[in-house]
Give the backbone structure.
Amino acid sequence: MFDWLEPLQLFRLDTALILTLLVVSVHVTFRVGIMSLAPMGFAAVGGYTAALVSTKTELPFAVGLLAATLLAGAIGALFAPPVLRLRGIYMALGSLALAQAIVVLIRISDFTNGPNGIAGIPVEVKTEYLIIALAVAFLVLELGHRSHFGRAAKAVRLDERTAEGLGINVFRVRFVAFTAAGAIAGCAGALEAHRTMVISPDQYGFATLVIVFTYVLVGGNGHWAGPVLLTWGLTILRDLLQVAGGHWEDIVYGVLLVVVLLVAPNGLSDRSLYRGLRRRWRDRGNPPSPKIDEPAEKVASP
Amino acid sequence: MQQTINGLALGSTYALLGVGVTLVWGVLGILNFAHAQILTWGSFAALAALHLGVPVPLAILVGMVAAGVLSVLLDLAVLAPLRARKAPEFSFVVATIGVSLVLTTILRTYTDAQTEAFPRQGFPVGAFEVAGQNVPRLQVVMLAIAIVAMAGLAFWLNRTRSGRAVRAVAHNRETAELLGVNSQLVFSICFFVAGGLAAVAGIFVAASAAQVSYSSGDGLLLVAFAVIILGGMGSVKGAIVGGLVLGVIEVYATSYVSSVFREIIAFATILAVLVARPSGFFGKKEAARV
């Protein structure tokens, strides 16, 4: 189906699609106001589960993928209660500690072949599979977005206490989101393992996390389409600019992340950002109109 | 006994790390992921000074000032605008992660990802014997520096006018500003001091390992966070005690259980303390932080 693409282009397309799954995973947690730094830990669980199933047993790829998704989801569910107890930067730190503990366990365990990682994983992933997986994810996201659960999630993110007052079970919403994010990241990790043939503990580190965060935060935390479209847009852009893989890429992503946090805290898909810009464009050349809440001088003088 | 001394020696490194982090995180409540990079840049600045033939104490000072300035620049360029816009806590975390990636990449490109030898001449190396036990000199110096830094910080924060200003800003920035405190100045001073302390820790770690690389700070960052969580938020003496305890735990776990546990101790400590007793040893109980 994608034979007309050059191998390099196809490789980059697959990379972008798997990265999109990770972006979706992080977006799901951000939607409910969870500051989780754990996605790479779940991706590691998924990647290693799938790799071990297909290299040590005769089971087909689908079983490994399913096992990876379920195991990552289960670990998410297991650690959700302690992590969700934490608030703010403590949640960020707790989830990061969880992810690092997972990666270190993989690195020191003989069962996972330690720091050398696993090689010779059969290549099973075709672009079609990735598109199907993403289409399913998008469908679920859109249904979730429009459902009672989606509105509850938004309420939880905007104001936890008010949401609780409205009868929303805040913990349950967050628990579902954290578990689902774990399962999605695990699935992404499994697909990545079956695409690149080789995995090692070091690939689940900060660099990928920053890239994913850049996509999610620059894309915006409103609708899922924001981060997804940004992921694809930036992938195409960086191919055109030929910066892929170099040192510059990391610097560009880091700077982009910081600049967008400063300029557009809600991401580029935030509607109020464009409202403000439009107002400024409309008022160009004119002196700024007086603010409404300031009483006019004539009224103030007796 | 020797194991305990080894643990305390390792813990001295951790205590020194913790003292640097506790000011910005414990007092001002900013989780700075770029701290590790500031530490590494400070070590490289000191290394450059040593290569120029500068004596050791002066080189340490160069490293401290370089890291302090970098730290203040980070605050002015990135964190101050975020504060001005009352950005949520998580923005600070993500922004400092972004900055840390940029700083790492610049240093990696500059050093070609090579590990550089760190000259130990002029540093107190070797060991001396106390009651038949070997005590490494460098670590004793580190512990001494950590304790002096702790005493200095405690005196500054509790007994001086500018220290009171820091605590006022930490408690409530707007109220402090209404009372005439220049909050940006307070932040700049704190970031400068934190950067300087980070550089000292980085330089001594580099000297004890006799090498330094662009990534040598990365592993230390989560250790420093573990120290603060263990010792208790906002507690300066907690940083010392937390550091020493973590060092002893790590050495005991390595020698009596299995060496494979060494790497995982810091993360396990963070998780366990956050879940069981989020206020650590000396921290105040704060419901909002649990």
Summary: Confidence is low (pLDDT under 50) at residues 294-302 of chain A. The CA atoms of residues 256 and 262 of chain A lie 10 Å apart. Chain A is about 70% helix and 0% strand. Residues 1-203 of chain A form one domain.
